[in-house]
Amino acid sequence: MTAYIAKRLIAMVPVLFGLSIIVFMVMALIPGDTATAILGAYATPENVERINRDLGLDKPLVQQYFIWIGNVLHGDFGRSFTLNRPVLAEVMDRFGATLILAGTALVLCSLIGLLAGIVSAVRQFGWADRIITFVVLAGISMPSFWLGLLLILVFAVTWRVLPASGMYAVYGGGDLPDLLYHLILPAATLSVVAAGVIARLTRSAMLEVLRQDFIRTARAKGVSETRVIYAHAFRAAIVSVIPVIGIQAGFVLGGAVYIETVFQWPGIGAMMVKAISTRDILLVQGGVLVVAASYVLFNLMADVVQTMLDPRIRT
Question: Which residues partner with 79 through β-bridges?
Answer without folding.
Answer: 86
